[in-house]
């Protein structure tokens, strides 16, 4: 659709078409499927659509094109959706200080349960804890201010 409308429409309309046809499907339930092997194929398809929208050569780097169009990449959308889900459900997750009484520098981090199965390690809850604990302290301190993030 984007390829057909490229010659007729301006960038704003192409961007609307992108969000209607591609982004809505790619971001549907991305929390649960964003860590799968198909994510790379979806990301490749997203880059192809972005290049068509801008009229760039098929081998052009898309990094600045995403910034120019203000569109999140599929991996960035996955992290954003995962963090939004995690912040909304953080009251169900224990911190390290609630698991043990040892005074460590990571006592305010969320506790990651011991997991031997890669299936569980790729799950939304485990990945959310892992990514949230990596975030800078200034962003983690916003975890109680749900309304400012959503």
Any chance you could write out the topology, listing elements then pairs?
Layout: H1 2-5, H2 11-26, H3 30-33, H4 39-54, H5 63-69, H6 74-88, H7 96-99, H8 118-121, H9 124-134, H10 137-140, H11 146-149
Helix pairs in contact: 2-4, 6-9
Q: In words, what does this structure look like?
A:
This protein is mainly α and 150 residues long. The protein has 2 domains: 2-75, no CATH class; 80-149, no CATH class. Helix content is 59%, strand content 0%. The protein contains 11 helices and no strands. The chain has helices at 2-5, 11-26, 30-33, 39-54, 63-69, 74-88, 96-99, 118-121, 124-134, 137-140, 146-149. The model has no long low-confidence stretch (mean pLDDT 81).
Question: Which terms summarize this structure?
Answer:
2 domains; mainly alpha; 150 residues
What is the residue-averaged pLDDT?
81
By secondary-structure content and strand pairing, the structural class works out as mainly alpha
Write the H/E string, N to C.
HHHHHHHHHHH
Rg measurement, Å: 19 Å
The termini sit apart by 31 Å
Strand content: under 5%
Q: How many domains make up the coordinates?
A: 2
- Give the strand tally: 0
Largest β sheet strand count, sense and barrel closure: none
**pLDDT < 50 runs, ≥5 residues:** none
Helical content stands at 55-70%
Using the alpha-carbon principal axes, give the shape.
Answer: elongated
Number of helices: 11
């Amino acid at each position: 659709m984007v390829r057909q409308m490229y010659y007729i429409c301006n960038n704003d309309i192409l961007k609307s078409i992108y969000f209607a046809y591609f982004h809505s499907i790619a971001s549907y339930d991305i929390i649960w499927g964003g860590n799968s092997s198909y994510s790379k194929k979806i990301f490749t398809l997203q880059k192809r659509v972005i290049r068509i929208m801008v009229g760039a050569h098929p081998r052009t780097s898309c990094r600045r094109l995403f910034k120019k169009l203000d569109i999140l990449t599929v991996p960035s959308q996955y992290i954003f959706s995962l963090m939004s889900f995690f912040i909304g459900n953080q009251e169900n997750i224990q911190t390290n200080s609630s698991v043990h009484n040892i005074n460590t520098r990571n006592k305010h981090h969320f506790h990651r349960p011991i997991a031997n199965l890669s299936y569980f390690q790729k799950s939304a809850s485990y990945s959310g804890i892992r990514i949230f604990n990596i975030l800078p302290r200034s962003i983690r301190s916003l975890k109680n201010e749900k309304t400012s993030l959503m």
